[in-house]
């Protein structure tokens, strides 16, 4: 089970405020399929809410602790029938290490219509590592870095 500092826990509680529960635990309780769904949710979102239908507070606390132990998740908050869990995303960690900022990435550009009465135009574009999208929706290529003549002489 992961440990969070009070500052981290407070920030995660604030972030979880607007979330809706993605896993519902019914009267069957904590089954293998429910654990699997919670694990998938943690892998893809990192921070999730789980709703437990049941009036037994002790059973909810026991479920909360067993979920955190089995999935190596950090308990963030337990309010009534809602449980908030956190585990760093697995996809994000592996993705950061494999891409070093180079290569192609897909970006969606939304431009409003010139008249303002029609639908905005939506285009998906592949950008290279040295390109960026401006605020107006145009693609700009980064200029090559200027080299100092003084440094090359010495």
Verbal overview:
With 154 residues, the chain is of the alpha+beta class. It is built from 5 helices and 8 strands, in the order αβαβαββαββββα. A 4-stranded mixed β-sheet has the order 1-2-4-3, sandwiched between helices. A hairpin with a 2-residue loop joins β3 (74-79) and β4. The longest helix is centred in the middle third of the chain and has 15 residues, at 57-71. Mean pLDDT is 84; it is low at 92-99.
CATH fold-level assignment of the largest domain: Translation Initiation Factor IF3
- Number of domain units: 2
Q: Largest sheet, described in full? A: 4 strands, mixed
Query: Spans with pLDDT under 50 lasting ≥5 residues?
Result: 92-99
Record field, number of beta strands:
8
Radius of gyration, Cα only, in angstroms?
23 Å
Name the CATH homologous superfamily of the largest domain: YhbY-like
In percent, how much strand structure appears in the residues?
Answer: 25-35%
Secondary-structure-based class equals alpha+beta
Mean pLDDT, nearest integer?
84
Share in helix = 25-40%
Examine the secondary-structure arrangement and name the CATH architecture of the largest domain: 2-Layer Sandwich
Count every helix, treating DSSP H or I runs of 4 or more residues as helices: 5
Overall morphology = elongated
CA-CA gap between termini: 56 Å
Which strands sit side by side, in order, in the main sheet? 1-2-4-3
Order of helices and strands: HEHEHEEHEEEEH
- Classified by CATH, the class of the largest domain is Alpha Beta
What labels describe this entry?
Translation Initiation Factor IF3, alpha+beta, four-stranded mixed sheet, two-stranded antiparallel sheet
């Amino acid at each position: 089970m992961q440990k969070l500092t009070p500052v981290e826990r407070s920030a995660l509680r604030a972030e979880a405020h607007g979330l809706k529960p993605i896993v519902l635990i019914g009267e069957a309780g904590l089954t293998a399929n429910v654990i699997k769904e919670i694990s998938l949710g943690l892998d893809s979102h990192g921070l999730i809410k789980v709703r437990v239908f049941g009036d037994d507070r002790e059973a909810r606390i026991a479920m909360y602790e067993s979920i955190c132990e089995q999935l190596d998740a950090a308990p963030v908050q337990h309010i009534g029938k809602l449980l908030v869990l956190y585990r760093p995303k697995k996809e994000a960690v592996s993705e950061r290490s494999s891409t070093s900022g180079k290569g192609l990435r897909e970006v969606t550009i939304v431009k409003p219509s010139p008249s303002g009465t029609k639908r905005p135009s939506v285009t998906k574009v592949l950008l290279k590592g040295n390109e960026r999208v401006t605020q107006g929706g145009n693609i700009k290529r980064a200029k090559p870095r200027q080299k100092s003549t003084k440094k090359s002489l010495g």
